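Each field is set out as follows.
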Amino acid sequence: MYILLWLLFGAVIGWLASIFMNTNRSMGLIANIIIGLIGSALGMWLMDIFGFGRVDTFSIAGVLVSVGGAALLIGVLTAFHRR
């Protein structure tokens, strides 16, 4: 059951980040899930590395950090894809 919730959360986070980064038309469901899951982990890891504390609960702050991490990942992937 938890794996389905993680996939759903990843899809929503990836979708929100793709809207924010204006790449929604070029990304599909699988890409949204992958970007959302990896981007969420990236956002949480960066918050911990830079000393802002851990945001590992389901909250507004957690969602914002997850979307930010996914948007950062989309930006990095877009920059490498253009080269």
Summary: The first helix runs from residue 2 to 20. Residues 2-82 form one domain. The mean pLDDT is 84. The chain is about 75% helix and 0% strand.
